[in-house]
Amino acid sequence: MSVASSTASTEDTTGAPDAGGTAAGMASTPPPPSAPGAGGVPRRKIPWTTRMRRDRSLLIMVAPAVLLLAVFAYVPMAGNVVAWQDYSPYVGIRNSPFIGWANFERVFTNPLFLDAVANTLVITAFQLVFFFPVPIVLALLLNSVLTPGLRTTIQSIVYLPHFFSWVIVVTIFQQIFGGAGVLASRMRDAGYTGFDLMTNPDTFLLLITAQSVWKDAGWGIIIFLAALATVDPQLYEASVVDGAGRWRRMWHVTLPAMRPVIILLLILRLGDSLTVGFEQLILQRGAVGVDVAEVLDTFVYYQGVVNGDWAFAAAAGLVKGLVSLALVLGANKLAHLVGEAGVYQRA
Amino acid sequence: MRIESETVAEKPVRKLPHRRSDRYRALLRGKNRPVWEEDPNPLGLVVKGVALLLIVLTVLFPLYTVVLTSLSTQADVVRSGGLVIVPGGLSLSAYTQILSGGIVTRATIVSIGITVVGTVLSTTVSVLAAYGLSRPGSFAHRPLLFLFLITMFFGAGMIPTYLLVSNLGLIDSYWSLILPGAVSAFNVLILRAFFMGVDRSITDAARIDGAGDWRILGQIVLPMSKAVVAVVALFYGVGYWNAFFNAMLYINDNAKWPLQLVLRSYVLQGVTLPGSGVGQVDIDDGAVTGLPVKMAVMVLAIIPILVVYPMVQRHFTKGVIFGAIKG
C-alpha cells in the first residue's frame, strides 16, 4: 500500500515541519515540481501527518517495545554521566558534583583493572583457538551422518546443554572435577592424592573452556549445518567427476561454503572480545581467585555493586562498552574490506 | 559373443584382492549415500561412530548421574564417593523433602511465575514491534529500527542500569527481573525478518477486503509464523528461567530468590539450606552434604527445559538462521 519509496520517506520526515496542519487533503494534491522520482510515473509525495495517521496502528504496535527500550536501555545510557561525577547514591545523579575525567584516570591507573583487561584478553584468545573451531569440526562430522533419523537425534542431544543455566553447568563440573567430586574421591580411594580443578588457577583456562565447549559447542553447529545444507549437490558431483576425493571435496566445496558464516561468527567474536562468559566467571571467581577469574564485567560488578564505588565502576564499564563498540564496527569494516558480507550490510 | 567369452576364459581376469560382495557394499553404503560418492572406508565409519557416541555420552552421562543421584539415598552417595553412577536403592525422598514447602518450593514457584509472566510479556511486545516495523516504507520505520539496532551494539552497562532500577524502586520487586531485559532487539529482528517474508499479496488482499493491521497480524501473519514465534518464546522463556545474575543484583531478600539463585547458594556454594533438616551437616567438611537433595534441586531446574525443548527444537534452524543472517 505504501506509495512512498524509501528515499521519499526519509525526505518526508526531514521536510516534516512544512507539512504542518494541512492534513488529509494533501494526499490527493498533485506532486510539487521538485518531487523525487520525476522520471516515469510521478510519485505522489504524502505529507508525514498523513503517513503517520495511515500507519498509526503500526506505531501503536511498536510503542510498548520502544517504551521499554527507552526506559531500560536509553535512560541508563544517559545514566553513564555518573562516570564523570563524584557520585553518591545518597545525593543522587542530579546533585552529585562533576569531577571531569578523574574516574577514568583512576580506571586506567588501577592495576586491578589492567589485570582484568589482561585476563579478559587471555580468555578470549584461548577460546578463539580452543573453542571456536570445535563447532566447525562437529558440524562437518555431523554433516557426514547420512541417516536422517540418527542425525536429528544427535543434533537434538548436542543442542541441549545450551539451554541449561550456567549454575547447572558449573555445578555439574564441580560434582565431577571438584575436590569433593566423583573423580577426586575415586582417586583418593585408589590411593592417589585428590585434585580440585575448580580451585586450581593454573588449569582454570582449560576448565572454563571445557565448560563452554560442553555447554555451547553443540549449539554452535546449528548455523554451520544450515550453511552446509545450502551447498548444491551438483558441486560435489562435478568435483567427483573431476577426480576429487573425500578430503579434496571438503577443502574445495564444503569449507568454502562455510566460509561466510565462519567469518561472520569470527567478527562477532572479535567484536565481543571484551565480553567473556560473565555468568560463568562470576560463579567461579570466589573458588578460583581473583588473579585468573577477574574479567572486565566482574571487575565492574565488584567495584560498583559490591564495593559501592559507583562512579569508578561506571567509568570502567563505559570504557569497556565503547571499546567493544569500536571493535565490532572495526571487525565489520575489516570484513567488508576482505569482501565478506559482515554483520550488517551497508545500506 | 561366443568367441569373446572364450577369450575371457583363456585369459582369466586377475581377481581383485578386496572384491566386495554387493550385499556388503550396500550395507556399507547405507541407503542415503548419493550415487556419486565413493564407498566409505569401514575403519573411517567405525572411528566416526565412536566419536559420535563419545560426544553424545559426554552430554548425556552427566545428566544421567545427576538424575540418578537425586533418586538415590545418602548411603549410595557415600558408597560411590559423590555422584552415583551405579544405581542402588531408588527413593524419592529428596524430592519430597524439597517440595514439601520451604525455600526450594518457594523459589520454584517464583521462577515459574517470572518465566511465565516474562515470556508472555516479552513475546507479545516483540511480536507487535516486529510487525510494526515489518512494512517497508511505513512511517518512521527506519529511525525506529535504528533505535533497536543500537542496543545490539552498545549496552548501557551494569552500573547505570542498576542505578536506574534502584531509583525506580524496583529493588526486591519481581519486575526488576523482567523489565530491564524484556525486549531483545535480536529476537525482534528474527521475528521481523520472518514477517517480512510473508507473501505480500496475501496481506494486500486482506487489506483490500478491509482488514486492518491488527487483524492482519492476528489472523494471517501470526498463524503463518507459529514456528518462529515458538522459537523466540523459547529463547525468552529459557532466558528468564536460567537467569540468576539479575536476581543477585536486584533481589536482596532471599525469600524472594528464584530457583537458580537458590541453586547457586545451596548447591554450588554449599551454604546449608535453612529449616526442614534439608542440609544435614556431614563428614568431609560438608562435601557430600545431602547430595541427593542438591541434585534434586538441579533436576528441578532442568525439568522445564527438558519438557519444552522437544516441542520447539525442530524449528530451531529456521529461527536462528533467519535472525543471524538477516539481522
TrEMBL record, chain A:
**Transmembrane segments in this chain: where?**
58-77, 116-142, 163-184, 310-329
Q: Where is this region: Disordered?
A: 1-46
Task: Return the Low complexity bias intervals.
Answer: 10-28
- ABC transmembrane type-1 domain mapped to chain residues: 117-331
- Topology term for the membrane: Multi-pass membrane protein
Q: Which InterPro entries match?
A: MetI-like, MetI-like_sf, UgpAE/MalFG_permease
Name where it mostly resides. Answer: membrane
**Compartments where found:** Cell membrane
Q: What keywords were assigned to this record?
A: Cell membrane, Membrane, Transmembrane, Transmembrane helix, Transport
Q: What PROSITE patterns does the entry give?
A: ABC_TM1
Cited CDD domains: TM_PBP2
Q: What PANTHER family does the database record attribute to this sequence?
A: BLL4140 PROTEIN
User: Which family would the database say this protein is a member of?
Assistant: Belongs to the binding-protein-dependent transport system permease family.
The name under which this protein is listed is: Aldouronate transport system permease protein
Its lineage reads: Bacteria, Bacillati, Actinomycetota, Actinomycetes, Micrococcales
From TrEMBL, chain B:
The record's subcellular locations are: Cell membrane
Q: What keyword terms does UniProt attach to this protein?
A: Cell membrane, Membrane, Transmembrane, Transmembrane helix, Transport
Protein topology in the membrane: Multi-pass membrane protein
Domain (ABC transmembrane type-1): residue spans on this chain: 108-312
Membrane-traversing stretches: 50-71, 83-103, 109-132, 144-165, 177-195, 295-312
Does Oxidoreductase show up as a keyword for this record? Answer: no
* Cross-referenced PROSITE patterns: ABC_TM1
Extract the InterPro entries matched here. MetI-like, MetI-like_sf
Family under the similarity heading: Belongs to the binding-protein-dependent transport system permease family.
Q: Quote the PANTHER family the UniProt record gives.
A: ABC TRANSPORTER PERMEASE PROTEIN MG189-RELATED-RELATED (PTHR43744), POLYGALACTURONAN_RHAMNOGALACTURONAN TRANSPORT SYSTEM PERMEASE PROTEIN YTCP (PTHR43744:SF9)
Report the protein name in the record: Aldouronate transport system permease protein
Source species of the chain: Promicromonospora iranensis
